[in-house]
Amino acid sequence: VAVPTDAGHLPGGNRCRTALSQADIVGRQRDIELSTNPSPAAEYVGPIKNVELASYFQRAWVTVAPSVTTKTWEEQVGMVLLQSLSSRTPVVSTRSGAIPEYVGTDHGAVLVEEHDVPALAQAIIELLGDPPKRERFGRIGRAYIQKQYEVKASVRQCEEYVLNLLRSNIQ
Description:
Elements: H1 22-34, H2 53-59, E1 63-64, H3 79-86, E2 91-94, H4 99-102, E3 109-112, H5 117-128, H6 131-149, H7 151-170
Parallel strand pairs: 1-2, 2-3
Helix pairs in contact: 3-6
């Protein structure tokens, strides 16, 4: 892991490089939520209205949204990840449900296995500590979203598909 020289801006300073176990994180969650001296590098904002999402993504260095499959549910699309990439903000998530299909690892995202807390922490730390990589992932993610999910391009693809079907039925 590349160690940033300005680690003081990260939550926990130099201690941020220590991967915490899931039990450690769960045990500290209440302390983090109730902290009276939160880090300026991280901000808990609570629920956000859809119309306000883009401004939050644009301010963020990275979007972290892990997902875990259960017996009755798995991630369908991971829309928040696509929205983040659209805003040039790289993402860290898990290989859960359809996330690898929609986001993939070649499109401005780092995906780790479900429940692998140390790998998740390492991916976050690496992106936070490497501004050129964050910038590159942001550009790649934005280009991918524009190519893959832009409305006019999607309409053209659908039109071409229907026209090809019609052509094949005429012949």
